[in-house]
Amino acid sequence: MKLSNPILVKEMRTRMRGKRAFIVLTGYILVLSAIIGLIYLVFTKNAPPSILNTAGRVLSAVLIYVQMGLICLIAPTFSSSAISSEREQETFGLLIATLARPSTILIGKLGASLSYLMLTLLGSLPLIALTYSLGGVDMIDIVKSYLVMMVAGVTFCSVSFYWSTLIRRGVLAQLVSIVTVIFLVAAMPALAMFLTSLAMNFANGPTTGFLNVTFLMLRTNPFAAITYLIIPGVPNPPNSVWFHTVPLWITQVLFYVGLTTLSIFLSLRRLNSVRKWL
Amino acid sequence: MIENVQTASAVGDTTQQTTSMIKLENVSKYYKTFPAVNNFNFEIGRGEVFGFIGPNGAGKTTTIKMLATLMLPTDGKLSIGGYDVVKEPHEVRRIIGYMPDSFGVYEDLLVWEYLDYFAALYKLSPAQRKRATSDVLELTDLTTKHDAQVMSLSRGMKQRLCLAKTLLHDPEVLLLDEPASGLDPHARIEIRELIRELCRMGKTVLVSSHILTELADFCTSIGIVEAGKLLAAGRIDEITAQLSGNVMLEITVKGDPSIAIEILQERPEVQRTTCDGRVIRAEYTGQADDVDELLDYLIQRGVRLLGFTRSQADLEDIFLKITRGTVA
Ligand SMILES: Nc1ncnc2c1ncn2[C@@H]1O[C@H](COP(=O)(O)OP(=O)(O)O)[C@@H](O)[C@H]1O
Ligand SMILES: [Mg+2]
Questions:
Q1: B48-98, pLDDT tens digit by residue?
Q2: What CATH number is attached to the domain comprising B99?
Q3: Chain A residues with CB-CB distance to B92 below 8 A
Q4: Which domain holds residue B264?
């Protein structure tokens, strides 16, 4: 394969050469393996045979949840320093003065983060193959879960790339990116839960408006999407709610694709007006 | 001040016989309300080496950044090679090489990777990149550092590496912002030799400095700036011709020169006196043939003279005259 984007080539060179990439990748796989190993040990040593059958399902679910959590933590760090670090080390002016178009910069920088993200996700494939072989989950649900994780990772990278074009200090850009991710994955469901508990106190039960808003918020959440995919018997949304026929993961993925598109659009616009803020 | 601004535009007008490569028309740049660049007008002809001289904070970097397509002017028009810098930045970038006053390098790359990266960003093919890389390394005397870590280079070498990067796409116009600043004397000389070499290659060079003498011996034209104002700009010979109508006198005295200075200043035709040890330099605005009257007057007032000579104004005198001694 011919890599024709010089920024991508350079980013890959420096990223993969440094110790950091190796440490993050190894740490990621080790954490996952340790958790799976521990649970597996607990299962095989102490569990009665009736529960033993569910080992595959539990392990797969745990693996996917933990992985989703790790992506929330590390994906925002992948590209949140893409532009701010260039500004901090005073190399950005030289880059802008070249013939690199804003799209070249975006593709190069974001492409490097995304390849790194994909590498991380692929690293867990042997583990998921192992838990899958224990049975209890459908292959198609695992594939869908990986899609959800991938799209979430891409979105977090794109959003933090936008922050890195806005915020001059790398550390601050990183912090804001992580806060954004926390808001997306934690604050929204917290709000949804709060609304639900509020609705419980209504005299005639929750109004449909309330239910709609609550479920819409749930539909933005990758953890909720995964839950519906790999945990059997989660109650479906009531029939009165908007989009109740559409699987939750589809709307969640669409919402994140929308966020990614918006981030990319805003980043390109920002890079196009670079002479106003350099 | 006002007469000097007129000087600048008058000189600008006379350079029209050469094709101009860089042109600024009524260019201003305000940071919020602070005028960093105030109504600059000048032209630089093809193949000229333009020394952009002024103290820190004069507005040199701001001007160069606007030319390098990194900053928008608040007002006015800049063009390079006939392209409008504001409207056609991509075309401008193709023909300029820009070296900032302070810059970083990607520390974790090798020297050849660093150059290859920029060469690729300038759309050179892999074969061209290899050639260009070895060419610029040779020119900047870094050939032996081809495989070295950028991190391991000395300050002077990094400066030369940045200059090498600037030359990769063989630009016609070079914008060099204080290329020798922060270097030890030896490295300064190397950079100056390099710029001289670039002049010989026929490139149009705009090079800034806050030290006049650094540029004096290879510039063909200069622009003198101070506190956001362009005091003069144009070809050195033209500025010299315009401003050196006055005679510079070098007067060496025995004893305290300050008394002699006081006496000199009584004379209306003596405009500006500076003192360096026992040597007084004075600008004489009267008729050149009547200098003897001043000499008579000094002797008559009891000044003990060791020397009294006329000298032609050189770049340094012009500089002092234009900046009125406020720029050291
Ligand atoms: N980004 C900025 N914001 C506000 N003021 C600035 C900025 N950059 C430069 N200045 C001011 O503009 C003036 C000109 O600066 P500069 O162009 O860097 O001068 P020089 O390169 O001649 O030393 C200075 O007074 C400086 O303080
Ligand atoms: Mg400067």
A1: 999 999 999 999 999 999 999 999 999 999 999 999 999 999 999 999 999
A2: 3.40.50.300
A3: none
A4: 245-311
**In CATH, what number is assigned to the domain containing residue B301?**
3.30.70.100
Give the residue from A56, A229, A59 showing the smallest Cα distance to A148: A229
Q: Determine contact, residues B191/B159, Cβ cutoff 8 Å.
A: yes
pTM for the structure as a whole:
0.85
Strand B279-284 relative to strand B270-276, pairing: antiparallel
Cα–Cα distance between A221 and A188 in angstroms, integer?
A: 8
The token duo for B193 is 């030799």
From the list B69, B71, B120, the residue facing A6 with the nearest CB is B120
B165 to chain A, any CB pair closer than 8 A? The answer is yes
Q: Which residue from B45, B58, B326, B61 is spatially nearest to B205, judged by alpha carbons?
A: B45
Among chain A residues, CA nearest to B162: A94
Q: Give residue for tokens 């399902």.
A: A57
Residue B321 maps to a domain: no
Say whether both B38 and B185 belong to one domain: yes
**pLDDT tens digits for range B19-51:** 899 999 999 999 999 999 999 999 999 999 999
On whether both B56 and B195 belong to a single domain, the answer is yes
Q: List the residue whose alpha carbon is closest to atom 5 of ligand 1.
A: B31
